[in-house]
Amino acid sequence: MSKIIKVIFIFLMLILLFLAYNYFSCFFISGSHADILQTVFSEKILRSDMKYTLPELPYAYSALEPYMDARTVEIHYTKHHQAYVDNLNKALEGHIDLQAKPLLYLLTHPDELPGGIRDAVINNGGGHYAHTFFWTIMSQEKQLPSKKMLDLIIKSFGSFDNFKKEFSDAAKTLFGSGWTWLCVNQKGELVVVKTHGHGIPQVSGGLQPVLVLDVWEHAYYLKYQNRRSEFIEAWWNLINWSQVEQNYYQVFKK
Ligand SMILES: [Fe+2]
After folding, report:
1. Which has the closest alpha carbon to 199: 180, 219, 182?
2. What would the mean pLDDT of 209-228 be, rounded to a whole number?
3. For residues 190 and 156, what is the distance between their CA atoms, to the nearest angstrom?
4. Do residues 120 and 94 make contact, with C-beta atoms less than 8 angstroms apart?
5. d(C-alpha 195, C-alpha 3), whole Å
6. Mean per-residue pLDDT over the chain, rounded
């Protein structure tokens, strides 16, 4: 009888260890960074017949009113983002080997791109990647960061207000067109990064994005004209914190 109890006890302990491993493993960076580079968000870059396609917008054009107007969202998505997708496909025409590779791979291995199409792939592919990311981190429902997310932000920036100021200042001071990102660095810390044009943060220092803001003029000009600061302040009301938190934990998965 005692033998059966021992077996049951060991079995229960094994289950407990398994559950504990699954719970805590997300808090540690595991796997090589090269693996992480290939997986984060790559599944969201939808493809069909070896061609990139515009991903479905997760809300109606008017869903982000009054902070982002319907006309801007429609033009931004159907004209600007669509153009990046079309130009990326055009650049890759006839390059079957490159068409078969994930977009994130192409963007992080520019040396493997022929010189004649390198800029077109980097610029338009980066545009497709960043916009795809951008649409998903906004929501029509007003959200606040969870306690866990807030703790992560406080750990890296001291307070949420410090983070908001650092991010907003980076977006406001970005010269010309570009993107402001919240990323996880190789130490697992959250850091604010800005990129010019359609540069993505993965190409330098192994940074992994969890949140992004488009500060190209086409993202705000119809409603805000030259008042980029006003657009940035309004955008804080649109953040899909639930998605940002998912992005954070995705970085630590193999
Ligand atoms: Fe844009």
Report:
1. 180
2. 97
3. 6
4. no
5. 63
6. 86
Give me ligand 1 centre to Cα 218, in Å.
Answer: 6
CA–CA separation, 190 and 173 (whole Å) = 20
Cβ proximity of 229 and 172 under 8 Å: yes
User: pLDDT for 136-147, tens place per residue?
Assistant: 999 999 999 999
Q: What whole-number distance in Å separates Cα of residue 159 and Cα of residue 228?
A: 24
Q: Is the pLDDT of residue 35 over 50?
A: no
Q: Which long-range contacts (CB under 8 A, 24 or more apart) does 156-165 make?
A: 156/189, 156/190, 156/191, 157/190, 163/190, 163/192, 164/236
Cα of 75 from ligand 1 centre, angstroms? 10
Taking the C-alpha atoms of residue 49 and residue 68, their distance in angstroms, rounded to an integer, is 33
Helix axes 228-235, 160-173, angle to 10 degrees: 150
Q: How far is CA 71 from CA 36, 220, 222, 229, in A?
A: 36, 10, 8, 20
Q: For residues 79 and 251, what is the distance between their CA atoms, to the nearest angstrom?
A: 31
Q: What is the whole-number distance in angstroms between the Cα of residue 90 and the centre of ligand 1?
A: 19
